[in-house]
Amino acid sequence: MKTFSRIGPFLLSSLAILFCSVGVARGAEPFIKDFGPRDYARTSKVLPHSEDVPWKLVCGMPYNCHFQPSIVVDGPAGRTLAFNSSNPLVLYLTKTESCTTLAGEHRYEAKDWISGEGAIYTIPAGVVVKSVQYRETGYDTEFAGSFRCDDSDYTTLWNKAARTAYLCMRDHFYDCPDRERVGFWGDGTPEMNQCFYVFDTRAHRLAKELVLRELQPKFYPGQHLEFLSGSGLWFYYLQTGDTASMAAIYGTTKTFLFETYKFGNPRTWFDWGKEVKDTAVIETCFYYSCLKTLRSMAGVTGHEADIPLIDAKLADIKGTFDSRFWQGAYYKSSQVETPDDRANAMAVHSGLADRSKWDAIFENVLSKKTYSSCFFDRWVFEALCMMGRQEAALLRMSDRYRTMIPSRFTTLWEHYDRWWASQIDAFDEGSSLNHGWNPPAILLSQTIAGISPEAPGWSTYHVLPKEAFLTSIQCVVPTIKGKVAVDMKKTASEYSLRVDSPEGTTAIVGIPKVSFSSLRSIRVNGTAIWSGTFRGGVKGITWNGEDADHVKFNAEPGTWTFVGTGTLPLTSPKPKPPEPSDDVALDKRSWRATASVPDTTFLFSGDKIPIDISAANAIDGDHWNGWRDMTRLQYPGQWLQVDMGRDQTFHRIDLDNTWALWDSPARYAVSVSKDGVTWGEPVATGPGGHGITRITFPQQTARYVRVTQTGTSSTYHWSVYELDVYRRP
Fold it and tell me: Are 394 and 154 in contact (CB under 8 A)?
């Protein structure tokens, strides 16, 4: 089981941050970019500001990043300033920095980086905060890839996955930058995959570091199989054409697979997810995929003499796989009582499940089971698309990420819906909200947009979209040959696919047959080249063939627009997400919040770290920093109230408890008052939403707003991590 390791061979960053000084004291880090001082996107108080009691200033960045807070204050000497991230998970590794003020006006900056979407400054009484900034740092690469489509849910997921991937790379690929910073091979595999589709070629240095890293067989050996498969090593080779690295690791890879790796090891971790883990099937499939990768490596590194030995082992696995695991409608070993989606997806993905079994696997397992975590769903998604079930793959993705898509967090989380690991109905407050193993960027760019190398180093690649119900896709992939740009649009009568192909490449471009109920003709740059058979006539375009999925052509470098004409069904099983609201959030910086319970702290996660959960946190602008009533589970009569300082006109409030996702109010009542004493009948009542509760009501004019809990829960507390009040534009 993967643990909350805080000390180990992979923890390369400092575990203690204890120093704060005038100016900046940072050691040089290779390949790390300093973006310089930046202004926060928001502050919880209007600056300059001071108070006659100790107080907190909460500031926010536009996205999750590595940063160092700084501050300019004016005041007496000998007072203690403290600052840290608003992300409580950084406290696993990073003590809150503090420093002692000098007399007069001075600037103070943190020594080392932390991560998060906001900073919290603890300010002593009598000290004036003049200004605040942060210094963003990060791996020296650019966001060079992109993905957009007509359904904003998937565009959002790609962007959040890209931000997550960037946050989880620095001196190596991390699982997360706050709680652990460990270089797990499992996390590193999708992080490496996505770096080729999201970032420029400078990111390839980290990918190569992972490829050349010495294997550690006792360190979660199952993750080594995931990495040594076609999803890891061979993926890297196709992206880079780096034969030298393949040659350098061939011997150790062969030794690991033929001598070191032992089946049935209890530490052979493959996934979190729920407990129905059919490890025997998963392990066999990954091992088979690794052998296929080893065979390919042997062919390009001068080890052809090993191929008969590898082929014999491949044939042995394939020859016995069905007799060991096929149960007539799905694959299952004796380890589990019900079929596992992970195991059956890997049977398809590895090639061990032949096409005759695909329909049964889909109908009996992949359309019904969701045991896999957001890490392993990568292989489920790809298997579904291999089976021609890309519609089901996209629907599964949007459903399983349903709480991450609308979240105000700019990154993707460790666990779907914040359920802990393999336990069922066990909320995990300690799981990270920025975890590198989330794969949507690679899945949407490579599989749905269909852009992927076929020969090492992108000398030949394909554009074979599997867009399902999406009607437009714009995707850029930053390859080592240059950017590949694809623009797909479809209407009821035309399928348009524009491809900008860089020099030194051959593109295999396919019009997907499944997108049509009737495909009559295909034009390239205005000239008809296909009407049931290839007609030619366009220089630089040749015939590649036709299979069950696509009509395909070879394209030389340049800009090509392929247009298929016919009849295209445009129905979609997925409702489009709602359009963004144009409501205007009221400025909360002078408001005051109170609650039915006194302000307090609670002990956070297994390390028992005290976290402030005062009512003021609910209006500080930071959704990682909130109010919680931890005295009892939800009960009628709990309330949270804000004093807006003067009468305001509004018609909506949002309650955001995404950090404590299951702490939504069982039921609520919203009341308003002009004086905080006289309250009328509730202006809105109802059940809480999952993560974010949006409450609308007839327009009101009042100074005070109170949300009262009217329901009960036998499991969860009530939390509000941010309360916003909105007016019409």
Answer: yes
